[in-house]
Write a structure and sequence with these properties.
By secondary structure, the protein is mainly β. It contains one helix and eight strands.
């Protein structure tokens, strides 16, 4: 199974930070993803209203990958081990 997270590209005048990125869960009708940062670990939990939860580890390349896609890089799959998910997932794919 693949989970696809759509990243809204940054506007030129916005601060390039992970917190300002807008994310959508493509396979879900509601789709809106809320981000929660754990202040002790710097992990980010991405939650969709459908129940999907993806944790991006703060010490991994996952958040950097999402930021790169937001500033114009090509779509990418998150590296295994850089995140965990509450669903049986083979790939988390990040696209614009």
């Amino acid at each position: 199974m693949t989970v696809t997270i759509q990243v809204m590209p940054f506007d030129d005048d916005k601060d390039v930070s992970f917190q300002s990125i807008q994310l959508t869960h493509v396979e879900c009708q509601a789709g809106s993803i809320t981000k929660y940062r754990n202040p002790t670990s710097d992990d980010y939990t991405l939650r969709c209203s459908c129940g999907l939860e993806v944790v991006l580890f703060g010490d991994s390349c996952a958040m950097e990958c999402v930021k790169k896609v937001a500033i114009g890089a090509q779509s990418a799959s998150l590296e295994p081990g850089s995140y965990c998910c509450n669903r049986e997932v083979v790939t988390v794919f990040v696209t614009t």
